[in-house]
Amino acid sequence: MKSNTELIHQWMEETIQKDWVCVDMTCGKGRDTLEMAKLAHHVTSIDIQEAAIEQAKALSSQYDNITFIQDDHINISNYVKDFIHLAIFNLGYLPDGNKKIQTTADSTLMALSKIYPRIRKNGYLVVTCYVGHKGGKEEHETVKRWIDHYKNFETTIIDSGKRNAPITYICKKTSFDSR
């Protein structure tokens, strides 16, 4: 059985077009950034941790279509002004990093609210929630409620049903009418 990450990367290969503009809202080690850079016109990748940005830059050094930003994802509207085709979140903490530095229900809700208006009609929001760490279940419930609130999303959920396994939401924005 493929992991959520493998399934999302396969989905990216099948979905992203060469003219797309994408945003990695939680850069981490840069694997999603790299996959998007292979396929899209431009990727903006943001992370609060310098170590994450440095790892991602090293991983994707052969691509010149990435803008890396070291900042909190709640500040994304300072950097992304135009419409985008895809925003992706991998919530939680940097693998093998400081587990005290992690996304929270509040910060994720703020970041979702900031990037949502920038997603164009027929664009996508992809959010992977990791429920197995402290605060992860609360963050997942917050994300689920936020997604359910918007009636203009066609949502596909990837959930293995296994205890503490990640849950991914692939949301296609079908209109600008948000409710």
What does this structure look like?
With 179 residues, the protein is of the alpha/beta class. It has one domain (4-173): Vaccinia Virus protein VP39 (Rossmann fold). The protein is built from 5 helices and 7 strands, in the order H-E-H-E-H-E-E-H-E-H-E-E. It has helices at 4-15, 31-39, 50-59, 105-115, 136-149; strands at 21-24, 42-47, 66-70, 84-90, 119-129, 153-159, 167-173. The protein has a 7-stranded mixed sheet with strand order 3-2-1-4-5-7-6, sandwiched between helices. Strand 1 (21-24), helix 2 (31-39) and strand 2 (42-47) form a beta-alpha-beta unit. Helix 1 packs parallel to helix 2 and helix 4 runs parallel beside helix 5 (136-149). The longest helix has 14 residues, at 136-149. The radius of gyration is 15 Å and the shape is globular. It starts with a helix and ends in a 6-residue tail after the last strand. The relative contact order is 0.16. The model has no long low-confidence stretch (mean pLDDT 94).
Count of helical stretches: 5
Q: If you consult CATH, what is the topology?
A: Rossmann fold
Between the first and last Cα atoms, what is the distance in angstroms?
A: 36 Å
Strand order of the largest sheet: 3-2-1-4-5-7-6
The CATH architecture name reads 3-Layer(aba) Sandwich
Largest sheet: 7 strands, mixed
The assembly state of the depicted protein chains is: single chain
Assess the beta-strand content as a share of residues. Answer: 25-35%
- Give the class from helix and strand content and strand pairing: alpha/beta
